Amino acid sequence: MNKVYASYLEHLQEIHALNTALGLLGWDQETYMPPRGLHPRAAARAHLSGLIHDQLAGDGLGGLLDELGALSLPEIQAASVRESRRDRDRAVKVPRDLVTELAETTTLAQQTWAQARKSDDWPSFAPLLAKVVDLKRREAEAVGYEGEPYDALLEEYEPGATAAAVEPVFTELRAGLVELMDVIHAAGPRDDDAVLAREWPVAGQDRLSREVLRAMGFDFEAGRLDTSTHPFTSGTSPVDVRLTTMFDPLDLAKSLYSTIHEGGHGLYEQGLPVEHAGTPLGQACSLGIHESQSRLWENQVGRSRPFMDYLMGRLKDTFPDRTADLNPDILYRAFNVVRPSLIRIEADEVTYNLHVLLRFELERALFRSDVEVADLPALWNERMTAYLGVTPENDSEGVLQDIHWSFGALGYFPTYTLGNIYSATMFAAASRALPDLDAKIACGDLGPLLDWLRTNVHAHGRRWTASELCRQATGTGLDCTDFLDYLRAKFGALYAS
Length: 497
Description:
This protein is mainly alpha-helical. The chain has 2 domains: 3-128; 163-494, Neurolysin, domain 3. The protein has helices spanning 3-31, 38-57, 59-69, 75-93, 96-119, 122-143, 149-157, 163-187, 202-216, 252-271, 287-301, 305-318, 328-334, 352-367, 376-388, 414-433, 437-442, 447-456, 466-474, 481-494, and strands spanning 223-227, 233-237, 240-245. The chain has a 3-stranded mixed beta sheet with strand order 1-3-2, sandwiched between helices. A hairpin with a 2-residue loop joins β2 and β3 (240-245). α8 (163-187) packs parallel to α20 (481-494) and α9 (202-216) runs parallel beside α10.
């Protein structure tokens, strides 16, 4: 191995070690940290964020990248260097004091948000959110952009994407969703999910969640499952992946599909090439691709008719006294009701993206300075009424429902819809490659699908952009066709019968 490249890898491992510590502090904060640990934790995370920034922006890494840029490297090494330079260029542009202030502010904001959501107290959270938005506006200006400030934030999560490029894709998707909703409305409301309105003991839900994760291929020797206010996945390496979910004794779907969703994220993290851990090639391609993995498992697999054959058996084993009147067809209809809802993570496949579009529009308006933080609750409620026909009764089920803004993840939400689009394209390609996939899913043999994803998606890290990765895996880049075809076929049939 080239000596300069070896030194470059050593430098990246130092950064990786710091990121690992920072990630574990963040995971602990959302799971087990006692409330009074908040302020010391905020200071620790700010300090670590500053050290990471120093390593990325410092002359040491800069000099190594300059030397490597003058060499003819193998394609894999060249891709790693290219992505490291992108990371460093962004770090150099953002002042260190801004990095540390963001880390400290968002740590405090996350805890304040959790309490505000619990007590429906928007006024307690609003000042901290206003500070987060101000800091992110400063970050966007420091990073720079060609189109609009929001692009600088979107780029962090979806490299190469811009608001202007994403908007027409979303517009096409919205039009297709509106047409499908018209068909569904014409069929009349359904209450097929009423059959699930019974108590599902949390201990049983926990066992079921773990069993489903094992069937998906999640390695509990390299990961764990805990609970949190808002489900999330935290991965420090392919051999240490932390999932969280939530349990509600009166809502089986909430825990089951939160777990499957986060399990999809976890499988991606566990499938990243361990030999490249700490380098860009050992990291997820983008959040859009990350979301494609969670949504593929949650929806194309977890809400499919074949999966219900497998799931029915697991439910009868876990809840024998609560499932005598259920069968796979009943489950399929129950888990696929289309009904506008207030909460994004509980939304059905058809209406889900309308939740995302609302957030995308509000975030974009914030960074155009067309609206301010104080305007958000009213605007949120107005758009929920206009887009989905439902109006939040309080801020906890409205503007306070998501954790993302509290930790500064502005520009994140569009990746959910990008992920939905990519997931359908990838599942269609996997189905072509695996003609017996439905039969495998029906008996709980999910290994062939995971193997396909490992080979075609997970193994490549950040070697390509999201659209390029999808094209390499499927022959198609970012395109709504497969996603809309999937929704039309599935829900057209469900609501025609």
